[in-house]
Amino acid sequence: MEVKRYSKELEKEWEGFVGSSVNGTFMQERKFLGYHPSDRFSDHSLIFMDDKIILAVLPAAVVQQEDKRILVSHPGASHGGLIIKSSLSTKKCLELVSALVECCAMNGFDYIRLKPVPKVYHRELSGQLDFALRFSGFRLEYTELATVLELKKDEEAFVKLVMSDTAFRNYQKALKSGLSVVEDANINDFWPILEHKLKHNHNAKPAHTFDEIKHLKTLYPDRIKLFAAYEGATPAAGVLAFLLNERVINCFYIAHDDGFQHLRPLNLIFGHMMEWGLKNSFLYLDFGISTEAKGSIVNTGLFRFKEGYGGHGILRECYLYEVNNSK
């Protein structure tokens, strides 16, 4: 198996492979990874080929921690890891992981850290890759927990069926409040609400700058959508969603204006998103993680809030491998 570094002239082949892969999303596309300033990450992405056919790609970067050189899943994406060809056999997965380890040993890496794409994003079963990682000595470094709602098309009154009694009452209240939901609202309306909420609640900033989000929106005009609730022309709340692939709606940013909380605008938005997702053939609504500090802190209130909409836990795992450089 041949392993080569990604270079710009391979962009077309890379993009085509990610689009047809088992577990790729737009976060593994070069178009997405490339929005970051060129000096932010030290890119070390890899392409794995067998008889000149791409079997896998690894969006990755080099991180230096003290005296250790680490190859990590690309820090510019929420998750990634090895992105594989459809129906890649167990034998080939074992060869793939072996080739990765050998490549890293030859290039002086001390560790490999991978954050695989969660299972709900996979287009078909692919547990053979996780098996190959574990069989080859990769260990779970930490586990985070996200909350995901399965969108079931054949269910009548789906919103009422999945929401808790309290959440559904608040949804009904929001429906009667006069609020309206806009499916592709202006991000300019939402960003001040998000910044204020993160600053007030967590003394934090969004993971993206406003300019970065606007740029991403131009790159993915149909796959980054703001679902926002308004009272008249005044924004009350919003959910900035990334349609990472055709299976999953990912709620990337969620925030509301406290002045409108009594109208329950997020209940209205999530109910609307469920119906929109069903209508547009999505399979899951991913509310994101509610753990902090690499899974060592559980935000029970946030879990309760998301589970009130019918969501259940999905693991987000991180693997670590210590490279034997003496090979």
Residue runs with pLDDT of under 50 for 5 or more positions: none
What is the beta-strand fraction?
25-35%
Number of strands: 17
**What is the H level of CATH, i.e. the homologous superfamily of the largest domain?**
Gcn5-related N-acetyltransferase (GNAT)
Put simply, the count of helices is 10
Mean pLDDT: 95
C-alpha Rg, in Å? 21 Å
- Biggest β-sheet: count, sense, barrel? 11 strands, mixed
Briefly summarize what is shown:
Helices cover 32% and strands 30% of the residues.
What does this structure look like?
The protein has two domains: 149 residues, Gcn5-related N-acetyltransferase (GNAT) (Aminopeptidase, 3-Layer(aba) Sandwich), CATH 3.40.630.30; 131 residues, Aminopeptidase (3-Layer(aba) Sandwich). Helix content is 32%, strand content 30%. The chain is built from ten helices and 17 strands. A hairpin with a 2-residue loop joins strand 3 and strand 4. The longest helix has 17 residues.
